[in-house]
Design a protein that fits this description.
Layout: H1 21-43, H2 53-59, H3 64-80, H4 92-102, H5 105-118, E1 123-129, E2 135-141, E3 152-158, H6 165-168, H7 172-179, H8 185-193
Antiparallel strand pairs: 1-2, 1-3
Helix pairs in contact: 1-3, 2-3, 5-7
Amino acid sequence: MSYELPKLPYAYDALEPHMSKETLQYHHDKHHRAYVDKFNKLVQGTKFEASPLGYVVKHADKGPLLNNAAQALNHAFFWHSLGPDRGGEPDGPLMDAIKKANGSFADFKKDFSEKAAGLFGSGWVWLVKNPDGGLDILQTANGDTPFSGESRPLICCDVWEHAYYIDYRNDRAKYVEAFWKLADWEFAQDNFTAGADEEQRSTTHPMQRKGQHPHHPPSPR
């Protein structure tokens, strides 16, 4: 059984003027699809063939299978990190944690933006919740992902050039400014407040097989 490319959680033009319909069509339908298709080919005949995507990311060895699984999952998470009529600031427990870690939301935003604009080459920038409850801003290169570790991703920004070149050419900093107008803090808050033994809401692992936990293989029959 193959994994399917998850649909966008909004219309292709829903993020305009900050992210164009053309960008979403190319980014989702071409780039994201390519990772999904490549993963489906590579996983055939391996011990991960019936495993949820999140389990593959946590347990596969470094190489093409892991790279494509991670990129498929990273992109699925990224689409839910954005939304129309979003932006602004979080509130509640997440805002409290951001202030504890960074002093203020403005300082957090500055640090995140600098890490996103300054990451060398291609990759991702993440706000994550560590096992001790504290927050960190992580840079991951290429297809690396915090889903392979113990920290819980809350929200992310894709800084591969294909995420912004149509709209912003090589001006990554301008793209990062637009990201703040789309950031879905409700999604991030849901991920932050999920209990230790509670699955993150289904959008976090939208490619898992129905009825399976994203980090555990199916039960033997």
